[in-house]
Write a structure and sequence with these properties.
Low-confidence stretches: 17-77
CATH superfamily of one domain: Coagulation Factor XIII, subunit A, domain 1
Number of helices: 3
Number of strands: 12
Largest sheet: 5 strands, antiparallel
CATH architecture of one domain: Distorted Sandwich
CATH class of one domain: Mainly Beta
Order of helices and strands: HEEHHEEEEEEEEEE
Radius of gyration: 28 Å
Distance between the termini: 115 Å
Length: 222
């Protein structure tokens, strides 16, 4: 009796397109990241816990979201204040130091010239941070920076640039904190310092410039 071959048919080869799609899908699964070639929308902070894209911000300002989605609260940031008000308003500078006996604050909405006649007292060797408070009123601002030049007896001894970032408009103030720094210490470090501060951005817009003084002492009330 003759026997019939029971060999299984050869599986069809996947097309080049399907193999390419499979590789792309596996790459996405392994990296846990979207596999698009380019993402043209810059991320900015709205102070809501996570960055959003400029495209998403534009859409949210144009079409209100239902209240049930929680979008109503986020849309309060897309306010349109007086067009005569600057887009970026720097409102205050604070030296954040846990061991300071009292607040070390500058109200930057008042008379900036008066700061030249005043001086912060900072105890030598303490750790502190600089906090800048500001508002963005109408348009997204990219690449904001806080620049600080420090002088002693008329000679510039230090220049520091802090990258603040990109922010969108909202009603509430933003706060930017610099990294922790240590005040200079020692007999030669004690004395008065003059500081020139500037808040700018990628377009080199000077949002605010001001001068203030800092005195390093052996103790807070020395």
């Amino acid at each position: 009796m003759s026997t019939r071959s029971t060999t299984s048919p050869r599986p069809r080869r996947a097309s080049r397109r399907s193999r390419s799609w499979t590789r792309t899908t596996r790459a996405c699964e392994s990296t846990r990241r979207p596999c698009w070639a380019a993402w043209p929308f810059r991320q900015v902070s709205l102070g809501c816990g996570s960055p959003v894209t400029t495209r998403a911000l534009q859409l949210s300002c144009r079409s209100p979201a239902p209240a049930s989605t929680g979008g109503g609260e986020a849309l309060t940031s897309c306010h349109s204040p007086d067009p005569n008000v600057p887009n970026v308003v720097v409102t205050g500078l604070t030296l954040v130091c846990s061991s300071a006996p009292g607040p070390l604050e500058l109200d930057l909405t008042g008379d900036l010239e008066s700061f030249k006649k005043q001086s912060f007292v900072l105890k030598e060797g303490v750790e502190y941070r600089i906090k800048i408070s500001f508002r963005v009123n109408r348009e997204i601002v990219s690449g904001m920076k806080y620049i600080q030049h420090t002088y002693r007896k008329g000679v510039k001894i230090d220049k520091t640039d802090y990258m603040v970032g990109s922010y969108g408009p909202r009603a509430e103030e933003y706060e930017f904190l610099t990294p922790v720094e240590e005040a200079p210490k020692g007999m030669l470090a004690r004395g008065s310092y003059s500081i020139k501060s500037r808040f700018t951005d990628d377009d080199k817009t000077d949002h605010l410039s001001w001068e203030w003084n800092l005195t390093i002492k052996k103790d807070w009330k020395d």
